[in-house]
Amino acid sequence: MSVDRQAPSPVAKVEENLPAPISRLIQLRHTIAQPVFAAFLAGGVAGAVSRTVVSPLERLKILFQIQSAGRTGYKMPVGQGLVKMWRDEGWKGFMRGNGANCIRIIPYSAVQFASYSFYKKNMVTMEGEKLPPSKNLLCGALAGITSVTFTYPLDIIRTRLSVQTADFSHLTEAQIKDLPGMWRTGVNIFKIEGGVLALYGGYVPTIAGVAPYVGLNFMTYEFLRIYLTPEGQKNPSSYGKLLAGAVSGAIAQTCTYPLDVLRRRFQINKMKSMGYKYKSIFDAIRIIAAEEGFRGFYKGIVPNLLKVAPSMASSFLSFELARDFFVSLGDDDA
After folding, report:
1. Which has more pLDDT, 145 or 48?
2. Which of 252, 249, 270 lies closest to 209, judged by CA?
3. Mean pLDDT on 299-317
4. Cβ distance 273 to 324 under 8 Å?
5. What's the pLDDT score for residue 40?
6. pLDDT value for 171
7. Would the CA dihedral through 52, 57, 58, 60 be positive or negative?
8. Residue ranges per structural domain of the chain
9. How far apart are CA 261 and CA 299, in angstroms?
């Protein structure tokens, strides 16, 4: 009995006759074009673009967050804070910690977008199905937890680099130059503060804040896209994507900001110069409420909101542009 075999496609026949290097290049292009892999690469691009655009405001937000009742070095309006940063440290002050931030945000954003794509793919029960907001919220929350778990030590190092020169006007230029960089900071945390566990200090409040933040971000973005870039619209406007990203980021950040403050406080909890010695999350909440009031949980919210709109807008837009490019590499006629 004869067995019918499906004839190879014309494209497959062509690829069989190509030299090995060219054939491997074509296979690589098809691999890159896979949805989850394309989302991973595009997420890295999106992270680098979005963080560099708002680096000065990102650092100022952190400096505001760590101000306690007895520390007033950056207890001022946003504009004055940026002027002080420029006057004290110049352009390097605006970009301080951004190298570590980009090194952190590229894998963080890559894992986040890729895992969101993965979780969405596994939530869908039939082709073309649109997930309800609740499932987008869940997928986003899981993506946030996944990305934080993989990259958290880099976030602690970035925070330490951002604050180590702030309000230390008594240091000489030589002493400032001798401050530890990214690698030395990580090694010091590991050796002095308690090994691997020290590199995950504040992990629990971080997860508590990141999971709902990322979930709300993706859910709101997906919801707004329905109205701002209607399905079936040819060449949807980039302005609609930018607006959807800006609004979703602002809503998510405002709702979860107190948890972000707790995260930053715990990341510097063991720095002797900062004066924080919180025993637990509830202890931190009690102390901040007693010493700084309700506003203590929203320190840095203004520069944060000023940065979140361009940050998330550029992140989602650059992600979609990069993802579409990587997916197009798999087209047979490319």
Report:
1. 145
2. 252
3. 85
4. no
5. 95
6. 59
7. positive
8. 20-328
9. 7
Digit-coded pLDDT (tens) for 220-257: 999 998 888 876 565 667 888 899 999 999 999 999 88
Phi, psi of 273, deg, nearest 5: -70, -15
Which tens digits make up the pLDDT trace of 173-192? 666 666 677 788 888 888 88
Distance CA 127, CA 110 (A): 25
**How many angstroms separate the CA atoms of 107 and 47, rounded?**
8
Find out whether 270 and 198 touch, Cβ atoms under 8 Å.
Answer: yes
What is the rounded distance in angstroms from the CA atom of residue 309 to the CA atom of residue 306? Answer: 6
Looking at residue 221, its pLDDT comes to 95
Task: Look at residues 266, 252, 150, 268 and name the one whose alpha carbon lies nearest to residue 211.
Answer: 252
- Distance separating alpha carbons of residues 44 and 102, to the nearest angstrom: 9
**Residue type for 81, please?**
G
Q: What is the mean pLDDT of the chain?
A: 80
How far is 115 from 138, CA to CA, in rounded Å?
12
Minimal CA–CA distance to 131: which of 48, 226, 22, 238? 226
CA 47 remoteness from chain centre: 6
255 vs 308: CA distance, rounded Å: 13
Instruction: Give phi and psi for 268, each to the nearest 5.
Output: -115, 15
The CATH code of domain 20-328 reads 1.50.40.10
Residue 1 confidence (pLDDT): 42
- Name the more confident of 72 and 1: 72
**Number of CB atoms found within 10 A of residue 195's CB:** 11
Q: What is the CA radius of gyration of the chain?
A: 23
